[in-house]
Amino acid sequence: MTSAVVIKGMKVVRDGKILIPKLDLEVPRGKVMGLLGPSGSGKTTIFRSIVGVQAISEGSIQVLGIEAGTIGLRNKIGYLTQSASIYSDLTCEENLKYFSRILGTTEISVNEIIELVDLGANRKQLASTLSGGERARVALATALLGSPELLILDEPTVGLDPLLRIDLWKLFHRLAQQGKTLLISSHVMDEADRCDHLTLLREGKVLASGTPTELKTQTNSSEMEDVFINLVGAK
What we know:
Layout: E1 3-14, E2 17-28, E3 32-36, H1 43-51, E4 58-63, E5 66-67, E6 77-80, H2 92-103, H3 107-116, H4 132-144, E7 150-154, H5 162-177, E8 181-186, E9 197-202, E10 205-210, H6 212-219, H7 224-234
Parallel strand pairs: 3-8, 3-9, 6-7, 7-8
Antiparallel strand pairs: 1-2, 1-4, 4-5, 9-10
């Protein structure tokens, strides 16, 4: 199986409003794929549909060869939402141990992940006292528990300083080299070049898909921001 996620003809309607009119999308295995577009383009809705918490009106979604929302996928997917879903009155370590018990993972895994996301110096620190970047890393650590095959990260670098963003992207690629598939959303076009593969969205529709180099060649652009502008102008 070459694709971790296969979406065919997906339509999403919420409160009578069409959020995704019709979407075909494939996420290649073992790669870092970026889902880019402005706010309101449908990125979070697509993620929620893949995870199985958003009902779709039409179409189908296969995740790791299984229908989206199936119980068997729960330990195979790590999902990081835009808001850090951690407990402020627990330390970094306590947060991870709590979520690891729910997932049935081991303390060894917790210790490995703390080091992986560079939280060793903060492990005993209350989450309420962490910086925004540190809280983001704790949230990412919870998504990594259980060694999921597919990581869905919704704007994981928003609000972070440039150096931390660089470190996180290095981590994302290390995880892909280990065989994990990462689907990452962003509205920051300069992060597009860090992806192996890209899908550009606007108003719930795919503008284009391909590698950063392919999209630049297709639109005769040198910067990803120009790629997006040229594609919008061509529609």
